[in-house]
Structure formats: C-alpha cells, structure tokens
Amino acid sequence: MMIGVTVSMPISIRPMIDSDWPFIERGLCETNCQDLTEDQKLVLTRAESDRHIIEDFQRYLRTEQFKFRVFIATVESGERVGYISVGELQNPAVGLPLGGILDFWVEPSFRRQGIGTRLLQYALDYIASYGYSHASILVSVHNSAKRIYEKAGFYVDRQIIVKAIKQSNQERLHNHKSM
C-alpha cells in the first residue's frame, strides 16, 4: 500500500554510515524521553533512559539475527533530516515473523513536510522486498507520530497495559536506608 507522499523538498534516503551516529543518538534520546510517562520519570532519570535506549539500539546494530538496518534521510545539501530503523521481529502470540520498524525520527525543524511519510514508505518497501507479510511498530500512546502510522494503514493488534508499582528513586533510597 502506497502512502500519499507530498514532500515539499527533495530528499534522499541512504543506509546509515558511522558518522551518522551522533544524529541518530540525538533522535533516539529525544523520542525516548518524550515517550516516558510521568510515573516512569519518577523511577528513571533522563541519563538512565538515554543510556538504556542507546545500549539497546547498539545491541540491535551488532546482532545480525535481527537483520537490523538504519536509513538516513538527507536534503540536497547533505544535511540529515531524519532516520528510520528496521529489523525482524516476531509476533509472540502466533510466531509470525514481522518486518519491524524499530525507531523513527525526523528533525523537529523538518517535520510536517512529508519526510516522515517518505521514510516510512521506504521502510515498508524495504520490509516487503524481504517477503514479510506484515510490518509492526511499537509506539507510545503519547507519540504524535501515531497519525502517520494510522494513515499508512497500521492498526492496533496487541496492547501493553502498564501499572506503576515501584517507588521513585528518592523513596527507594529512603526505604532502603531505613531497613
């Protein structure tokens, strides 16, 4: 299914190279921080959150079993304006292999210009070229990019329902000292 793509400026999409890492790291940390709920922020600092997401991303890059690839969107000048990462996931309920969109970010000053839609279509075409029958993405309920996924035909298949049960770092430290 093609997504209606209107890009107001010419962009190119290419595979990630090592010098893209600082750009990707910034996008990872921004997106992950924005997706944290208020109760998660009580038990996880920004630095801890950033460290976890960077370590996970790097693990995916090193692990060939996930078939992980990252694609960078650039404008004519070569400036990086977004990225998307894809890999293989599996639907745990039925064992169906899925082409997974693992992370997706567009530079804030370039948003709402069709770049995200173009990156998403590129990723879906890439996933389809490997014969996957389905694509998936895990997205925070608070993530504003959900509208792009819905417009592209994604739908809710399973939901993760979360309840906060841990105390804040401050409360944990106080309770630990009083034991």
Q: What does this molecule look like?
A:
With 179 residues, the protein is α+β, with helices and mostly antiparallel strands. The protein has one domain (11-177): Aminopeptidase (3-Layer(aba) Sandwich). It is built from six helices and five strands. The protein has helices at 21-35, 38-43, 46-62, 115-129, 146-151, 169-177, and strands at residues 11-15, 69-75, 80-90, 97-106, 135-137. Strand 4 (97-106), helix 4 (115-129) and strand 5 form a beta-alpha-beta unit. The radius of gyration is 18 Å and the shape is globular. 20% of the residues are buried.
Kindly estimate the percentage of residues that lie in beta strands according to DSSP. Answer: 15-25%
CATH class: Alpha Beta
Describe the main β-sheet briefly. Answer: 5 strands, mixed
CATH homolog superfamily: Gcn5-related N-acetyltransferase (GNAT)
Known CATH architecture: 3-Layer(aba) Sandwich
Computed Rg: 18 Å
| Strand and helix order | EHHHEEEHEHH
Which geometry do the CA atoms define? globular
How many domains make up the 3D coordinates?
A: 1
As laid out across the biggest beta sheet, the strand order is 1-2-3-4-5
Distance between the termini: 59 Å
Name the poorly predicted regions. none
Number of strands: 5
Question: What class, by secondary structure content?
Answer: alpha+beta
Enter the CATH topology name: Aminopeptidase
How many alpha or pi helices?
6
Mean pLDDT rating: 81
The share of residues in helices is 25-40%
